Structure formats: structure tokens, C-alpha cells
Amino acid sequence: MSVISNPFFLFCCLLFWVNQAIERLWGIFIPWIHAYLDDLLAMPVIFGITLQIFRWIHPLRNQFVFTKVQLLVGWFYFSLIFEVFLPRRSDIYTADPWDVLCYAIGTLLFYKLINFPISDPK
What we know:
It is built from 4 helices and no strands. The chain has helices at about 5-25, 30-55, 70-90, 95-115. α3 (about 70-90) packs antiparallel against α4. The two termini are about 15 Å apart. Keywords: Membrane, Transmembrane, Transmembrane helix. This is Magnesium citrate secondary transporter.
């Protein structure tokens, strides 16, 4: 099973798209969902897309997985950019420590539910 056919990855993508449609097309904003759902889904979606691309180009193919250190660096980098750097540079971004927790939970969910080697059918 490739990343793009992983049920958890597909669920995260679908939930993100549904949430965006509800907010942007119908103007419905549910406070906690509006504030944190995208942040919770960001890491499984971003890491999932990145993992799939790596599996297309890396010699290990479907056996390639991200290490814990790579995931921690990705989580830290994402948190630093979106919760420290951008809020200081632009008024459209707001620093929120709860977002960092959502990124961490999303990273952990990615690690547990998506980031595993898959066997190639022979």
C-alpha cells in the first residue's frame, strides 16, 4: 500500500478539504475546529506527501521511512517557521503554542499510522 492509498492519510486529506470547503464556501467557522484542525492534520498530510515523493525517487523505494530524528526536525522546523518566524513578520499569522502541540500530535500520528515500510507485491 502506497502512502497515497493509506486510509489514515486519505482521511486526513479528506477532512482537511471538507473543513476548508465549509469555511471558505459556506463561511461556517466552528471555533475549536477552525483554530486547530488544520494544524493537527498538517503534519500527516505534509509528511505523507513528502514520504510518497521520497519513495518514488529513493533507492529503497517502499522500504524508505523517516527516522524519528527526521520527524522531530520537521516538526521543529514547521513550528519555528509558522509559530515564531512568520508571526513576527506578518500580521496574518498568529503565534499559538497550542498549534505546536497539534503539530506534535500530527507528527506522532504520522509516525504510528503512515511511516512504515511496505512490502512490494511480487
